[in-house]
Write a structure and sequence with these properties.
It contains three helices and four strands, in the order αααββββ. The model has no long low-confidence stretch (mean pLDDT 78). Strands 1-2-3-4 form a four-stranded antiparallel sheet.
C-alpha cells in the first residue's frame, strides 16, 4: 500500500470513530441535568438568582432593583466559589426599549442566601 492510501484509510477510520462517539454519547452517558447538578453542586433557583441580582450593586453604585433574569445552564464556578450560570438579564424592566443581555453571572451561597459572586 502506498502512504497516501494508508493516510486516507486512517482519516476515514478516525472520522467514523468520532462520528459514532458523538452519536452514541447520549446513549452511553445521558445527561438530563445541568453540569452543576450533575457534579453535585447546588445552584440557585430563578427566583433566588433574581433576588441576588436585585440586591447587587454595580461598581458605579447603581442598583438593579428592577432587573429581571432568566436562568440558563449552570456549571461549577471556575473563577470563584459557587456556580456560574448563563443568564438572560434585563437590567431595568420598567424601560420600554430595554433589551435583554445574554451573559454569565457567578453565584455563591453566603450565610444561607445566594449572592452575586462574579459579575
Amino acid at each position: 500500500m502506498k502512504g497516501s492510501a494508508v493516510g486516507i484509510i486512517g482519516a476515514v477510520c478516525l472520522a467514523v470513530g468520532f462520528g459514532s462517539g458523538f452519536v452514541l454519547r447520549p446513549v452511553i452517558v445521558p445527561v438530563a441535568a445541568s453540569p452543576a447538578v450533575a457534579a453535585g453542586v447546588a445552584q440557585p433557583t430563578e427566583e433566588e438568582a433574581t433576588a441576588a441580582v436585585r440586591r447587587h450593586r454595580l461598581f458605579t453604585g447603581t442598583s438593579l432593583a428592577n432587573a429581571t433574569l432568566k436562568l440558563g445552564d449552570c456549571s461549577p464556578g471556575g473563577v470563584g466559589p459557587g456556580v456560574t450560570c448563563m443568564t438572560q438579564l434585563l437590567m431595568d424592566s420598567t424601560k420600554p426599549n430595554a433589551t435583554p443581555q445574554n451573559r454569565p453571572i457567578g453565584f455563591a451561597r453566603v450565610n444561607g442566601q445566594w449572592e452575586v459572586a462574579v459579575w
